[in-house]
Specification:
Elements (H helix, E strand, L loop, with lengths): L11 H12 L4 H19 L12 H19 L19 E7 L3 E2 L2 E2 L1 H12 L13 E5 L3 E8 L2 E8 L5 H6 L2 H25 L2 E5 L15 H10 L3 H9 L7 E5 L3 H12 L4 E5 L5 H17 L3 H8 L10 E4 L6 H5 L1
Parallel strand pairs: 1-6, 1-7, 7-8, 8-9
Antiparallel strand pairs: 2-3, 4-5, 5-6, 9-10
Helix pairs in contact: 1-7, 2-7, 3-4, 3-10, 6-8, 10-11
Amino acid sequence: MFSGAGHRGASHFLAFAVTLAARLHASRKAAFLFVFTAATCLLLLSSCSRAEKPAGDDRALAAESIENLEMQADKLAAGTGGSCPQEFSALETGRTLRISMFYGYDNYEGRVHDRVNARSMSHVLTEKCRGKLSACGFSIVASSQSALRLMRTLDGRQVEINLFTSSLPDDAKEKLNPDVRDREQDKLSRTVKDRFYRELVESDVVFYMGHSRLGCGMEFNAQSGVTTLFNALFRSPTLPVLKALQQRPTKLKMIGMFSCDSNKYFRHDFHGANPSLALILTTADIYARPAEQASLGALDAVLAKRCARAFDESMMSAYEPNPGMTYLIRGPGPDIRFQSR
């Protein structure tokens, strides 16, 4: 039914290369030579993979994306899970609940999908509420080139949801010459990345939807296989993220990583930076459509204050059910549910 089921991880060759390099017991020179050789091979493999198709008519793609989220919304509206407000006491601050959802540079099948996915989320959020659905009834109050702000009152409290995208609009891609387009994309990517670091301190909840890029993810620009390999080896892109998570005081209570195998790539570092964080993580490679459904389910579960099992069930994709894929881990320490499935 859905064609855009793109993969949100890196290639298995990249993963193998990083693992092998990490295990080398040779000198720095030998390790560097290995990385250089692997990078040269990857350059040949990835040089054509970054090429994007012309924007063209994306109406079919947008319709598929909306249909995908509507399927999950129908499942949530029919849900029977209970509410456990006591489990969300950390989010009861007496001020507006601020949720920021970042759509990374999510490219697959020759297209970048962040704007389509964000518009689909906005479509569902602004629909009339029905059944047990809580991720609904919002109004758009502000918009810009890369951000959309939605508001509603829920149980007497203001809720603010911000949707951030990271790619240039299609009309800009078509009108600008390649050099100018690349400069504008780099500028936009840096702006969104800086906003991401900021919201890791100022938002109560932050979700990231995009590629993990072997643990150096949360990126908001196009990236070749060579860059991914080097970043995965040295992990420099994660340093500003961890610095933001370490900042005190902070409003952040929960972060969700809807990208491939985020448990393996991010759990240890994130809890090391802030042990009190609740984490939503994936346990394996996840494809785009189930990931988008899971993010809507998690958002609805936060708004409805779902109990533990109901929270997990809300995140289970209606399109591709997998009860072992996405989990909420509440705070520090081992999570029995997470380890036993």
